[in-house]
Structure formats: structure tokens, C-alpha cells
Specification:
Chain lengths: ~110, ~110
């Protein structure tokens, strides 16, 4: 049972344009969400997070939007740069339920075209 | 510099052999985790430990064992009972009691059964 889903395995975007990565979740106990970026043969690195008490969090070129009613979140990268080419994982946690373990999605491979 | 170190980076195992993957952190984190990455399946939790001398099974613990004798160390043994051990293994750590800021990941160990 995949509780965190990233339905697009890959995405190609022109350099300078906006990249939008999507993530859906099914567990209503999830209340904290994170995005990680991963290069091949390396560990994921934390990008940005959002608590369920917010609907938007911004950090430089990265913005995460949360739609709780739709159980959907998205990561916007603008402008996209070649170094953004990587696999992006969405992750969720149920902090209020005491479950701090992160549940990860399957990842989206983003390719930025120069 | 504080960080989390996994070794070796590449590991080859003959069928029927047990192998142990090392994970060491000097971040003073209480919690440590082992994930497995397979193509198209994201990161799946094998085992986690929130405190020394205690650990819990994750979603795919069968065929694996762990120990947590020291705060800094969380080795993973892949036993001969694991049917499909070839994968990329990631160790992570976090401050127990919060997922704010997410996990810190090691750079991974790629295990191949030959």
C-alpha cells in the first residue's frame, strides 16, 4: 500500500522555466511533509518542508504548496537550473501521532534541458 | 565536520553469504534508520532505532538484522534469508522527537549479489 505517491516518474523542463513536481498521500495522519533531492550514487539531501498548519513554504527558488483537502503537495522550482537535474522524493510523517518515521514516495526524475 | 558515513560504497556478495553494512554518525543524533532503494520503488524502511539498545522493524525487515550498541553506530546485516538483496542501501539519522529538517543521509552502499 503506497501511502505517498509520485505519479510522474520523470519530468523534463527547459532551463529557466518552472518545474512542478507533484505528490499525493493517502494517510490522513500525515502532518509534516518534506522534499528531498538525490543525485545518482549519493544519499538524498533535504530541500524544503512544510507543516500541515501551513499551505505554502518558500525558500529561495523552491516553494512547496500543500492542499490538505486534496491530500496533495507540490514542489515548484523557479527558475530551473541544470544543477536541479536529479531525482526528487516526497516524504511524509505523522508527528502528532508520534510516528516520526518518514514514508517516501517513489521519486520523480527531473531533467533540466539547457 | 559532522556527518554520517556508510561503508563500503560498493559490496559484492556471493549467494548464501551474510554481509554487514556499516553506518556511523557523529551528529549526536538519537535516531538512526536503514532504507533500501530499488528502481521505481522509492525508499523503503528496513529497520530503525530511536535509542541505544532498542530498534524496531520497518516495512521490509525480513532477511535483515541490526544492532544498536552505541549511539554512533547502526550496522545492518543482510542475511542469506533475504531473497533479493541487490539494491542501494541508505542509512540516515535524525534528532529523536522531531522530523523538522528531516533526516541526514549517508552516501549509500550498493550491494550486488554475484
Amino acid at each position: 500500500d503506497q501511502q505517498v505517491k509520485q505519479n510522474s516518474p520523470s519530468l523534463s523542463v527547459q532551463e529557466g522555466r518552472i518545474s512542478i513536481l507533484n505528490c499525493d498521500y493517502t494517510n490522513s495522519m500525515f502532518d509534516y511533509f518534506l522534499w528531498y533531492k538525490k543525485y545518482p550514487a549519493e544519499g538524498p539531501t533535504f530541500l524544503i518542508s512544510i507543516s500541515s498548519i501551513k499551505d505554502k513554504n518558500e525558500d529561495g527558488r523552491f516553494t512547496v504548496f500543500l492542499n490538505k483537502s486534496a491530500k496533495h503537495l507540490s514542489l515548484h522550482i523557479v527558475p530551473s537550473q541544470p544543477g536541479d537535474s536529479a531525482v526528487y522524493f516526497c516524504a511524509a510523517s505523522g508527528t502528532r501521532s508520534g510516528n516520526e518515521k518518514l514514508t517516501f514516495g517513489t521519486g520523480t526524475r527531473l531533467t533540466i534541458i539547457p | 565536520d559532522g556527518g554520517i558515513t556508510q561503508s563500503p560504497k560498493y559490496l559484492f556478495r556471493k549467494e548464501g553469504q551474510n554481509v554487514t553494512l556499516s553506518c556511523e554518525q557523529n551528529l549526536n543524533h538519537d535516531a538512526m534508520y536503514w532504507y533500501r532503494q530499488d528502481p521505481g520503488q522509492g525508499l523503503r524502511l528496513i529497520y530503525y532505532s530511536q535509542i541505544v539498545n532498542d530498534f524496531q522493524k520497518g516495512d521490509i525487515a525480513e532477511g535483515y538484522s541490526v544492532s544498536r550498541e552505541k549511539k554512533e553506530s547502526f550496522p545492518l546485516t543482510v542475511t542469506s534469508a533475504q531473497k533479493n538483496p541487490t539494491a542501494f542501501y541508505l542509512c540516515a539519522s535524525s534528532v529523536s522527537g522531531t522530523v523538522s529538517g528531516g533526516y541526514t543521509f549517508g552516501s549509500g552502499t550498493r550491494l550486488t549479489v554475484v
